[in-house]
Specification:
631 residues, alpha/beta, Rossmann fold, PRTase-like
Length: 631
């Protein structure tokens, strides 16, 4: 027997999708008729899912015919469970004119009423859609905590249960998750397991090792422009290295199809230093180096604007490129500046970046194409270093998600010193020193900094007290790893880059399609996961590698919808049998709360006799259950 986990995290004996059921004109007419009283003066409609778009459009058109009116129709679907602020901005674009009592939220099935009263109606009000109402096609028992008018009441088969007190779970009925985007059952007809090999780590390891220990790589950090990055690359520490100087000279020499007369760069310290070095290599006067944001060209001094209008070849120099949007902005603004001055918009534009850290080769090729406007000139884009990393903002950053989980805990649980200290660290926008969730343990901290090289490890390990000295080096990597002789944020970056490479959809040139070994989102019917036997208990058994792999993965990278007993068993072994349990427990709890691990695998996490800590464990396990028994 089965039951279902809805997109809201609640469990149901049956799950209704009206948008999929209303497949004929007569069925849509019947629904539209019963909505006439609500639609009489309404023309701006929000529906709770894309599958309800046909219902929304048909109902409004039906009302227009019935009331013999000629109202312009606007129908906008929700994109899952949205934040009210982002939804407000989108609704302002969807409904451009302020209205009074003309907006309606059409809900397929109402469960708790929270989506209507805490998200959509407040967003409509903020979007100048005053007096909006909500109506649902059906309501599931036990009913709403906030009133929602409904056309019908569903029976107890559709009753809503909290995930941690589900009657169906108690009798061991299998739970099937409903995908948030498609509202289809998330099932896998086949699970394809993959492994991280030395070949997968080679490129990223070489780059990360070259700049290790310099602070070039950090985690959970905001850029000066306010954008958040789970994985942050800082060019400044790299600029003074011999490797970078050599690579920069080669990159400048590769720009064979451009002879820069002006260099344009954003006003950051790293970009300014890089631009100065490029100018020196090109024997270009520093007067020809212009610093401005991409939208700042019209505000430049007259002399600088004149340089940009008269130059036939302009080189954009940037410290890091991710999406290429800044480069695109410079190109558009440069063309506009030249045309407004009465000059030709045509310019031979080139780009040199310190680190190209696009999400993959195809994305980097897209960025390069911004300057490849002449098919005869291809050597106009160059990068000193290339490192493909996940482009995760606050929505996907695993540390932002961890912070959100901990913020949801009751205030008394958040006041536990362990939780409070962790939240303080996560709230910092300048990077994270303690990458993984700490856990109380017997014994002191490590004695001195971790050895960096294999030779240093050998020397340290030759002393008589080596075992005691390094017993507390739990989150450090032993030498000889395929991820490099690295520690901390450098190691996390190396692991993230290697795993991200498994999601590549093209060859390294960005041209030839290949089948990715992991997916950027879950794609039924094949579930692609990392083989748990190879990283939880096998090849990458060291706790710091296990934790790094889990942090750098999506839920669907490690968990198949049809479950994995090996995964749950391996987690239990770490918690209850292996020596790693007294340090690893907090990190595994967080990963379960984020949906990476089954809740049942961490429910027996030891509290070391601390009742306050036990309450924190219970709260995190409850969140893990709500996160779903499946990804």
């Amino acid at each position: 027997m089965l039951h279902y986990e809805g997109p809201n995290g609640h469990h149901y004996g049956a799950f209704l999708r009206p948008g999929f059921a209303l497949t004929t004109t007569s069925a849509l007419d019947r629904i539209a008729f019963w909505l006439l009283a609500d639609l009489r003066d309404r023309s701006n409609i929000v529906v709770d899912h894309w599958s309800m778009l046909a219902t929304g459009h048909h109902a409004i058109a039906y009302a227009n015919r019935f009331f013999d009116r000629d109202k312009q129709i606007f129908v906008e679907p929700l994109h899952g469970y949205e934040d009210p602020n982002t939804l407000t901005a989108r609704l302002r674009r969807a409904f451009p004119e302020p209205t009074v009592k003309q907006a309606l939220f059409l809900l397929s099935v109402n469960s708790s009423g929270r989506m209507a009263h805490q998200v959509v109606l407040p967003a409509l009000e903020q979007a100048d859609q005053v007096g909006a109402i909500v109506v649902a096609l059906a309501t599931a028992p036990p009913g709403s905590t906030a009133p929602v008018r409904s056309l019908s009441q569903l029976d107890n088969t559709y009753r809503r249960y909290n995930a941690d007190s589900c009657a169906y779970c108690e009798v061991k009925r299998t739970v099937i998750p409903i995908d948030r985007d498609t509202y289809l059952m998330r099932l896998a007809a086949y699970t394809q397991q993959t492994a991280i090999t030395r070949a997968d780590t080679a490129r990223s390891t070489k780059i990360v090792e070259a700049y290790k220990g310099l602070g070039a790589f950090s985690l959970h950090r905001d850029h000066v422009d306010g954008r958040h990055h789970a994985f942050y690359v800082d060019l400044l520490p790299m600029l003074d290295t011999e490797r970078f100087a050599r690579g920069l000279s080669e990159a400048v020499s590769s720009l064979r199809d451009i002879r820069p007369q002006v260099i344009l760069h954003p006003p950051t310290e790293a970009a300014a230093r890089l631009a100065g070095s490029v100018a020196d290599l090109l024997n270009l006067d520093q007067v020809c180096v212009v610093s401005t944001i991409e939208r700042g060209l019209p505000q430049l001094q007259q002399r600088q604007r004149q340089l940009l209008r008269e130059a036939s070849d302009v080189l954009v120099v940037d410290d890091v490129v991710i999406t290429g949007r800044r480069l695109e902005g410079y190109r558009q603004q440069l063309i506009t500046l030249r045309r407004n001055g009465g000059d030709s918009g045509e310019v031979n534009l080139g780009c040199l970046v310190g680190v190209a850290r696009a999400r993959d080769a195809r994305a980097l090729k897209g960025s390069a194409d911004f300057v490849h406007h002449d098919p005869k000139r291809w050597h106009t884009f160059a990068a000193v270093e290339t490192l493909y990393l996940p482009n995760w903002d606050k929505r996907q950053c695993p540390w932002c998600r961890e912070q959100a989980v901990l913020e949801r805990l009751r205030s008394d649980v958040r006041q536990h010193p362990l939780i409070a200290a962790r939240l303080d660290a996560l709230r910092s926008s300048g990077g994270l020193e303690d990458i993984f969730f700490p856990w109380p343990h017997a014994g002191g901290g490590p004695d001195g900094p971790a050895p960096i090289t294999e030779e240093a490890w050998k020397v340290a390990g030759s002393s008589d007290d080596a075992s005691a000295k390094f017993a507390d080096r739990f989150w450090e990597l032993n030498p000889g790893s395929v991820f490099g002789e690295v520690q901390g944020a450098d190691l996390m970056t190396s692991v993230a880059a290697a795993i991200h490479g498994l999601r590549a959809k093209t060859t390294d040139d960005g041209r030839t399609p290949v089948e990715p070994r992991l997916d950027t989102r879950f794609r039924s019917p094949v579930s692609k996961v990392l083989d748990p036997d190879l990283y939880l208990l096998g090849r990458f058994y060291e706790p710091v590698l296990i934790a790094s792999i889990l942090r750098a993965s999506h839920e669907w990278d490690v968990r198949s919808p049809d479950g994995d007993d090996h995964l749950a068993d391996a987690v239990r072994q770490h918690l209850t049998y292996l020596a790693s349990g007294d340090r690893f427990a907090g990190e595994l709890l967080v990963m379960a709360a984020l949906g990476h691990l089954p809740a049942e695998s961490v429910q027996d996490t030891p509290s070391n006799g601390d009742p306050d800590l036990q309450r924190a464990i219970d709260a995190l396990v409850a969140i893990a259950r709500k996160a779903g028994g499946t990804p």
